[in-house]
From TrEMBL:
Name by which UniProt lists this protein: Transcriptional regulator, TetR family
UniProt GO molecular function: DNA-binding transcription factor activity; transcription cis-regulatory region binding
One Pfam family named in its UniProt record: TetR_N
Taxon lineage: Bacteria, Bacillati, Bacillota, Bacilli, Bacillales
Organism of this sequence: Alteribacillus bidgolensis
Keyword DNA-binding included in the entry's annotation: yes
């Protein structure tokens, strides 16, 4: 996992170390002392930045999830061509989700033990669904997409990408010889073709 610009502040460094250790040992098993030691800081510094191990995990989820990158994409990078836009959305989604795979696995494991995490896990896909629904609605208004239920198409697109991500994330060995790049290009082309007037 990385944070993009290569420069880590103390909080990001703690978060990255914590995510690695939580993924390796489990949230319940890893201690704040182990996290602090691995991050090269005192346990007191960890508590000053995050207050608790639970808060550390929750801030990690907020810091490294895809929502802010997707919001920027939807605000600044759309060209209003269905296939081009959907391919960019798909590639961005997979890039961020793959980069943050460890965080995603931790949240899946801990969602029932920590109710705040379960709520966060629902918020991110909900926000992506809203962005995609709005995009599909606007594409219909522009006459660049067939009349259909925009929310249904948003969910179909999310499930297509989420399914591919999960298959790769949890597979012990490659599920297929088809590369992720080929999957995205082909599936987005088919998806766009089906929605283009």
């Amino acid at each position: 996992m990385n944070v993009g610009n290569g420069k880590l502040n103390t909080s990001d460094k703690i978060l990255l170390v914590a995510i690695d250790l939580m993924a390796e040992k489990g949230f319940k098993t890893v201690t704040t002392k182990e996290i602090a030691t691995a991050a090269g800081i005192s346990e007191m510094t960890l508590y000053r930045h995050f207050g608790s191990k639970k808060n550390l995990l929750e801030q990690g989820i907020d810091r490294f999830h895809y929502t802010w990158e997707m919001q920027k994409l939807f605000k600044e990078k759309l060209v209003w061509d269905l296939q081009t836009d959907l391919l960019l959305i798909s590639k961005t989604y997979h890039e961020v989700m793959s980069r943050n795979g460890k965080m995603f696995l931790i949240t899946l494991k801990e969602r029932h033990n920590l109710p705040g995490i379960q709520k966060k896990m629902k918020n991110y896909p909900q926000q992506l669904k809203e962005m995609l629904t709005d995009y599909f609605t606007r594409m219909q208004v522009r006459g660049k997409m067939i009349p259909t239920n925009p929310e249904t198409q948003a969910m179909s697109f999310i499930w297509m990408n989420y399914g591919a991500f999960m298959t790769n994330l949890i597979a012990d060995e490659p599920f297929t010889d088809v590369s992720m790049e080929e999957f995205m290009t082909t599936s987005v082309a088919l998806f766009a073709r089906g929605l283009t007037p």
